[in-house]
Amino acid sequence: SLISTIHDLLSTLSTHPSTAEATHDFALQVSGNIYRREICVLTTKASGWQFSAQKATGDQLLGFSIPDMADKLAQQAPAIWRLLETLLSADPTLESRRARANKAGLVRPQPDADADSEDVWEEEDEYWAQLDEEESIAEVDQPGAMDVDNDNDGMSKQRRRAIARRATLIRIKRVVILNILMQSTNQRCNALACFIGLFCHSTSAPELVIEMLAHAGLSVSITGIHNVISSLSKDAHTNITKTRRNFWTL
């Protein structure tokens, strides 16, 4: 039946010269509608991502968690979540080289023979430097951490941690990108931006840096940060007052 062969049919339409362009345009339109719907769902009040800087509380600050945010976003916007994972590791050649190098003991891979230039791996220096740093720390501070795991695949535990760290960083980037998209659609969805702004303020970051981050959608403005601080101060005062009243009733 047509349904059972739909994938083969779509594959043929997307590769045939006479239908490829129209098929791609249709696929992009359908995908765009899916992504748009997911962003619209995320920006509704019911999704839980709307945040008021003027009503921030200490409990919200203490309950803030990037891993929890990532899990929730992955459930609410699965299509965009998968898309970002693909785009953040978009070069299959680099991913394949990394995988082969990891399996072979994580020696820094060399460019292929048909590479365009000798510095093809220049952009990978930071990635492999992080792995080397992780291994050096383990070798000096954690004797035995470099032992090979029991599955005998030739990969050290410390190298596994470094690879897992890269996967975690990609996960964080997906959270950041999705928050920028949400905040761009609805400025009330600024929870992450508020917390980044508050962090910048607590570390005495220059106002020029904060404004630059605000323009990029990564932070709220200076005024927004002051609103968060004022709200947190009021919340703390309320909690102190309640505690004092409870103390006197004992």
Summarize the SSE layout with pairings:
Elements: H1 6-15, H2 20-42, H3 58-63, H4 66-76, H5 78-88, H6 92-103, H7 125-141, H8 157-185, H9 191-202, H10 207-215, H11 222-249
Helix pairs in contact: 1-2, 4-5, 4-8, 5-8, 7-8, 9-11
Describe the structure.
The structure is a single chain. The termini are far apart. Residues 117-123 and 137-150 have low confidence and may be disordered. This protein has 250 residues and is an all-alpha fold. The protein is built from eleven helices and no strands. Helix 4 packs across helix 5.
How would you concisely characterize the structure shown here?
By secondary structure, the protein is an all-alpha fold.
Structural class: mainly alpha
Residue fraction in strands: under 5%
What radius of gyration results from the CA coordinates?
24 Å
Please, what is the average pLDDT?
80
Distance between the termini: 76 Å
The low-confidence parts are 117-123, 137-150
In this structure, how is the largest beta sheet organized?
Answer: none
How many strand elements?
0
The string of secondary-structure elements, in order, is HHHHHHHHHHH
In which range does the helix fraction lie? 55-70%
What oligomeric state best describes the polypeptide chains here? single chain
